[in-house]
């Protein structure tokens, strides 16, 4: 299997699929092609959320604001999974999640390995998705084909044996920010300093604050503003704000039938302070 | 085959695909993931339109405004087709269409059967698409795998033999509204009281009025407003309104190069009165 | 393999897939379903860009503003590829690219052949994608199935043997406009008279001017306006205009974090005059 993720919109990913089909009949699965445009950090959040659901596969992920510069093309092994991506950090958060065993691929010695792709003269200066990343993913998939249920060691050996891969000495990393939790005297969370990771297509504001920190509460303050905690959008009137836990497991700042990013005035990278408040209004 | 339909946008459906791939290699076909958000009735209209085109398959359909409440997860058999969906009525209009034989799966004794999924403690309170519906669809597909061309009786037996399914006693139903036709002295349709079922992404207003009732006419009145009937958008000037028959076979209120919902001031659930008018303008 | 391209949005293409699955298990690959609505010329540009990446396949392409009129349904062979499309010119630019050998399918005697589909009484007047083009693509794919690696001659013979295909005598053609290049005394390009081919979903203005004509320059004038040439959007400030070479290899007029069509006031079909300018600003 080869999964495909990008910020290319349409119809560019189809060109990648055509190129891959010239190399291999491996199944193609789209992750998304509307990932946050030119934002490897937000895209890494989504890939960290989605990729661990898959069985071992080759994942071709292209969010590449540096196309046309001399950034490397990277191949990252995490357990039996392989991520092919530009060397801008995008691959690292999902690789750690894959190696950590959400997919059951072990934790310890089968650590993450990174390789640089030796690219000589891609056909296009601007469409490395088609000219570099897709064919690399296809060749890796073909190299692994002899044994689709390969162990991490076997995948590692197969990558090491490929002529155009060499060990990456210092791949770019993205570390998604962790929230800072302040606890009260009883040890319960009283406040969290978090950060906006992404805005989805509905304008919902996705933070890095784990949902468990607000579950069971009725109200919290979001950057001072008293806001109801709800499990469903319908719990508040259309146009009203709410705080909820998104399908990804993190706190979202939303508006029923509206856009949370506008109402809360929040953008990716902004700070979000969430304070427990037990008032009844 | 497993088809997938939702209002999840992107990249959530990819997480469902990953989960399914841990269970089965069955082909995955996307129906749509931009179905009307949180609106099981409008989504049921689209599923009733699309699903009968398919050969027997497992259809996983998640439009689920009640996620987080105690609504059941439902499995509905219709002929040799199986729909896995929340118990909010969504599955019923397409199930009736599938049982009715658009796909040739018979009409009579092979009636619709509904089962409740015994869900204990899903991993997430908010992403039952991934944690409940996708794995259920995958397990059903695996249970049927021995015979992909299974008869309705064989599908019924396979579902009845699954440990975590029990007969549904009173599943929620959605009955899509039928238009009321007033006929003239000659028995020809003179007026229709219909209803808006859905707005598509172009703003086209989809009604429940069958296209045959306006075919051959040049003009009709839509809620009093005289409007040309046209087979193609290009028959009227850009910005002008028209009435046409959509690809789904129902009357649409549209604007060439514009949005019909705004021009006609119509929303899902609104009444549409269509009156024959033979004026030449 | 059957590829699918349309301007149908969602969920109409799923109905086409269901119909195809009643005929054949051939792999289905989406090219795009948000191609420029009702604009066969712009869609032909995108298909010319994408289809040559694929190995030989049956391509079902439906951008069909003439649905409901008596335009023919066409089958065009180009090398070992087959395009099924309305007879409005849409198929011709990609067919020439496919026959020209980007996919290695030869150039000379294996010329383009066109057939008309004998359609009697399609089920719907408005959804020929489902009722005419999809089943035709499925039947062609089945007819070729005996030998997936068929030569152009074998594909030609298979099409000629189909009962409901007859040679097209005068298929509609679209010839994408070629830019006119003015050279200076040294023979270098000094100015280009081009044309807008398409606007993508980000508002980027795609012209018919090959990227090679601006590569290496720092500034050009776009319809008089001095504009920087950049390899990446990030080379200019958010909101600022730039000229770049798109992934398709043609000159684009863009805005970083904004819409080029608005900023440059350009629409499909508009003229674009690009003049070399070596000022340093």
TrEMBL record, chains A, B, C:
<protein>
    <submittedName>
        <fullName>S-adenosyl-l-methionine hydroxide adenosyltransferase</fullName>
    </submittedName>
</protein>
<keyword id="KW-0949">S-adenosyl-L-methionine</keyword>
<dbReference type="Pfam" id="PF01887">
    <property type="entry name" value="SAM_HAT_N"/>
</dbReference>
<feature type="domain" description="S-adenosyl-l-methionine hydroxide adenosyltransferase C-terminal">
    <location>
        <begin position="194"/>
        <end position="273"/>
    </location>
</feature>
<dbReference type="InterPro" id="IPR023228">
    <property type="entry name" value="SAM_OH_AdoTrfase_N_sf"/>
</dbReference>
<keyword id="KW-0808">Transferase</keyword>
<feature type="domain" description="S-adenosyl-l-methionine hydroxide adenosyltransferase N-terminal">
    <location>
        <begin position="2"/>
        <end position="142"/>
    </location>
</feature>
<comment type="similarity">
    <text>Belongs to the SAM hydrolase / SAM-dependent halogenase family.</text>
</comment>
<dbReference type="GO" id="GO:0016740">
    <property type="term" value="F:transferase activity"/>
</dbReference>
<dbReference type="InterPro" id="IPR046470">
    <property type="entry name" value="SAM_HAT_C"/>
</dbReference>
<dbReference type="InterPro" id="IPR046469">
    <property type="entry name" value="SAM_HAT_N"/>
</dbReference>
<dbReference type="InterPro" id="IPR002747">
    <property type="entry name" value="SAM_OH_AdoTrfase"/>
</dbReference>
<dbReference type="Pfam" id="PF20257">
    <property type="entry name" value="SAM_HAT_C"/>
</dbReference>
<dbReference type="InterPro" id="IPR023227">
    <property type="entry name" value="SAM_OH_AdoTrfase_C_sf"/>
</dbReference>
């Amino acid at each position: 299997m080869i999964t495909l993720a990008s910020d290319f919109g349409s119809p560019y990913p189809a060109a990648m699929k055509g190129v891959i089909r010239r190399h291999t009949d491996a199944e193609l699965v789209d992750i998304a092609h509307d990932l946050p445009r030119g934002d490897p950090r937000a895209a890494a959040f989504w890939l960290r959320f989605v990729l661990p659901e898959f069985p071992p596969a080759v994942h071709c992920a292209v969010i590449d604001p540096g196309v046309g510069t001399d950034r490397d093309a990277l191949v990252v092994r995490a357990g039996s999974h392989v991520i092919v991506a530009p060397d801008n950090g995008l691959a690292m958060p999902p690789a750690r999640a894959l190696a950590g065993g959400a997919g059951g691929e072990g934790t310890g010695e089968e650590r993450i390995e990174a390789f640089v792709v030796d690219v000589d003269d891609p056909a296009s200066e601007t469409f490395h998705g088609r000219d570099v990343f897709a064919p690399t993913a296809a060749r890796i998939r073909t190299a692994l084909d002899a044994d689709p249920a390969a162990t991490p060691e076997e995948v590692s050996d197969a990558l090491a044996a490929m002529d155009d891969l060499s060990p990456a000495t210092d791949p770019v990393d993205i570390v998604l920010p962790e929230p800072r939790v302040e606890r009260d005297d009883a040890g319960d969370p009283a406040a969290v300093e978090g950060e906006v990771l992404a805005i989805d297509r509905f304008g919902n504001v996705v933070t890095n604050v784990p949902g468990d920190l607000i579950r069971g509460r009725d109200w919290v303050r979001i950057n001072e503003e008293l806001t109801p905690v709800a499990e469903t959008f319908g719990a508040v009137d259309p146009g009203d704000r709410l705080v909820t836990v998104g399908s990804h497991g993190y706190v979202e700042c939303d508006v029923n039938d509206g856009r949370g990013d506008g109402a809360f005035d929040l953008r990716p990278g902004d700070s979000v302070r969430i304070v427990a408040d037990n008032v009844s209004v």
